[in-house]
Design a protein that fits this description.
heterotrimer, A alpha+beta (139), B alpha+beta (372), C alpha/beta (153), B: 372 residues, alpha+beta, Cytochrome-c3 Hydrogenase, chain B, 3-stranded antiparallel β-sheet, 13% strand, C: 153 residues, alpha/beta, Beta Polymerase, domain 2, 5-stranded mixed β-sheet, two-stranded parallel sheet
Chain lengths: 139, 372, 153
């Protein structure tokens, strides 16, 4: 009989101990964020959409159309059309990114010899049509 | 009025599909249950709903191109997968990774292990009807993901490790943050335990349910917490050490009976040990380079290598065969969940349907890893 | 007992040219003829106490299939690889799932991906692929209408 009472007491207290934890948090503030109203500031390294770095003053990019990024992309989501100017210097005529295929791995950024690519902080990427997923990186 | 009870009613066994869209199968697993009333006579897992052909993809990608795919095998513990993959390719190449890179790898991998166990702990409690632990657990996971995001730039599929090192050095302030987090986490795990470990309802649902003996676990090829829960003291980090684990002190928690409760207990203790490893690794973190000298185009000499790491779900191994070109001839992915799940059929025989949920939860499968 | 002793025991048990055992890259590897697989495996798991099968798999070398069995022993912590070659189309080999239960699923997987027939398998259904799928995807010459051709980078 005593054994039984102890057992019941133990079981009940085990439940109450858990309750005590929850009650403690009942009085502390919320830890969640009301998303569309408030927005998170992403860390510096956040890997969003691949973009060409455009110099603010000159408005130029550093891409030399060497195709290193195209070759290194695991999902073949980048495409560059190579053109040469009068000095036989290569430059990209078209530079497109298929966002639907992109894995956001950052291998293209690492592979770029002129450090012309970066990944921005954009993360709300939903669009209405598939066509909108193909973006041109050139300004 | 008197009713006569017919004693010899013939009842038929019937079949029930559990999944592929069942919340407690944690993904798209389908279990074909053969039932007698509510007693499970047989449970046949039906896989392949998430089969993406990872091994075929690997044959058309270079060694470094396959790295982002590795993240997606077990998407809950991506860094642990990456560690295993890098070990295999580095073994094939014969590259020694600098000490700092190894320490960083261990730190982020152990953080990921805690996050992964949290993703197990919350839903496991939820499967058994306790919703609160899920919310508390995910609060801590959020902190880990924030930290890992500040290191790698992503929250789930990190693509942080590189063959021969890591992508970037730790960001400023990370060490302090990680240290503070480890300190913060320990009392939180005690809190998790207060919520469940001795809880009368939880004990009823888990004690003595789904007992897996040590021999059976070995025979089924179970690894990780499932194996240790059955009382086999084996951890790849200790028994065939890789990376810098030999320099770090930690214990291997084991169970005694091999029931659902033991597997639960082992995972909670593992979280504590991971926190311990992180603290030591942060203390010992040497300075130096973070990348070894690796050629830009990786072309290993013909041969084969098997690299394995202790993931949060058991042994994650990559068997890589090279023929001297930049594409692997064959890449076999051996995952923990795959073998652990094969033991389920024996575990649930004779249990009730509700216990299947508990046992399945305690095995902790990720279908991405099972189907690949 | 060291690896050397184990090699000795193996060669004593399987005399002649049916088996070669040598350390390869630090791992004890045993090359056998495919018809001996069941015998060798039961000897390895029984006498030599290799109680854990990491995985078994297959490699397509375009003229033959190479089987690999990675074994480990929890009692003496030794690793061992079994290598054997089988025919490329409808290659047959005995199932080892009665020795290590974990082999059951690995064999089902290998069977559907490479077309290897495992004789004596208790449950030779498909594991991952659709039942109505033709071909064996991991063979090098596999083609299928749903396969996307990769662009040339």
């Amino acid at each position: 009989m005593i054994k039984f009472t102890v057992k019941v007491f133990k079981r009940v207290t085990s439940l109450l101990e858990g309750m005590a934890v929850t009650i403690k948090y009942f009085f502390s503030g919320p830890v969640t964020m009301q998303y569309p109203d408030k927005k998170w500031t992403l860390p510096e390294r956040a890997r969003g959409v691949v973009t060409l770095i455009i110099d603010k003053e000159t408005g130029k990019h550093r891409c030399i159309a060497c195709l290193a990024c195209v070759r290194t992309c695991p999902n073949f989501s980048l495409a560059v059309e190579v053109k040469t100017d009068e000095n036989k210097k290569r430059y990209p005529g078209k530079f497109t990114l298929e966002l639907g295929k992109c894995m956001f791995c950052g291998l293209c950024v690492d592979s770029c010899p002129t450090k012309a690519l970066m990944m921005n902080n954009e993360y709300e990427l939903a669009v209405y049509t598939r066509k909108e997923l193909t973006r041109s990186l050139l300004p | 009025m008197k009713y006569e009870i017919e004693k010899d009613i013939m009842t038929d066994n019937y079949y029930l599909n559990m999944g592929p869209q069942h919340p407690s199968t944690h993904g798209v697993l389908r279990l074909v249950l053969r039932l007698d009333g509510e007693t499970v006579l047989d449970a046949v897992p039906d896989l392949g709903y998430l089969h993406r052909g990872m091994e075929k993809i690997a044959e058309s990608r270079t060694y470094s191109q396959f790295l982002p795919f590795v993240d997606r095998i077990d998407y809950i513990a991506a860094l642990l997968n990456e560690h295993g993959y890098c070990l295999a390719v580095e073994k094939l190449l014969g590259v020694t990774v600098p000490a700092r890179a190894e320490y960083i790898r261990v730190i982020v991998a152990e953080l990921n292990r805690i996050a992964s166990h949290i993703v197990w702990y919350g839903p496991f409690a939820m499967d058994l009807g306790a919703i609160t632990p899920f919310l508390y657990a995910f609060r801590e996971r959020e902190m880990i993901l924030d930290m890992l995001e500040s290191v790698s730039g992503q929250r789930l599929t990190f693509a942080y490790m590189r063959i021969g090192g890591v992508r970037q050095d730790l960001p400023e302030g990370f060490i302090e943050k990680a240290r503070a987090f480890c300190k913060y986490l320990k009392p939180k795990i005690d809190e998790y335990e207060t919520l469940l470990t001795e809880n009368a309802i939880f004990l009823k649902r888990t004690k003595g349910v789904g007992i897996l003996s040590g021999e059976a676990a070995i025979n089924y090829g179970c690894t990780g917490p499932v194996l240790r829960g059955s009382g086999v003291k084996y951890d790849i980090r200790k028994n065939s050490p890789y990376s810098v684990y030999p320099e770090l002190e930690f214990d291997i928690p084991t169970g005694t009976v091999g029931d659902t409760w033991d597997r639960y207990k082992v995972r909670l203790e593992e979280m504590r040990q991971s926190a311990r490893i992180i603290e030591q690794a942060l203390e010992k973190l040497p300075s130096g380079p973070i990348m070894a000298e690796v050629p830009k185009i990786i072309k290993p000499a013909p041969g084969e290598a098997y690299g394995r790491a202790e993931s949060s779900r058991g042994e994650i191994g990559f068997f890589v065969v090279s023929d001297g070109t930049q594409y692997p001839v064959r890449l076999k992915i051996r995952t923990g969940s795959f073998s652990n799940l094969s033991a389920l059929r024996d575990l649930v025989k004779g249990l009730k349907i509700a216990d299947v949920v508990a046992v399945l939860g305690s095995i902790d499968i990720v279908l991405g890893e099972v189907d690949r | 007992m060291t690896d050397q002793d184990r090699i000795k025991q193996l060669l004593e048990r399987f005399p002649g040219n049916s088996l070669t055992a040598a350390p390869d890259n630090g791992v004890l590897s045993v090359t056998i003829r495919p018809e001996n697989i069941a015998l060798v495996c039961s000897f390895l798991s029984g006498t030599l106490k290799y109680d854990y099968l990491h995985f078994l798999t297959c490699i397509d070398r375009t003229d033959k299939l190479e089987m690999r069995y990675y074994l480990y022993s929890y009692s003496h912590q030794g690793t061992l690889v079994i290598k054997t070659d089988i025919a490329r189309l409808n290659g047959k080999i005995s199932s080892v799932s009665s020795i290590w239960k974990t082999a059951e699923w690995h064999e089902r997987e290998t069977s559907e991906l490479f077309g290897v027939v495992f004789e004596g398998h208790p449950d030779p259904r498909r594991l991952l692929l659709d039942d109505d799928m033709d071909g064996h995807p991991l063979l090098k010459d596999f083609t299928h209408k749903v396969l996307v051709k990769l662009p040339k980078a």
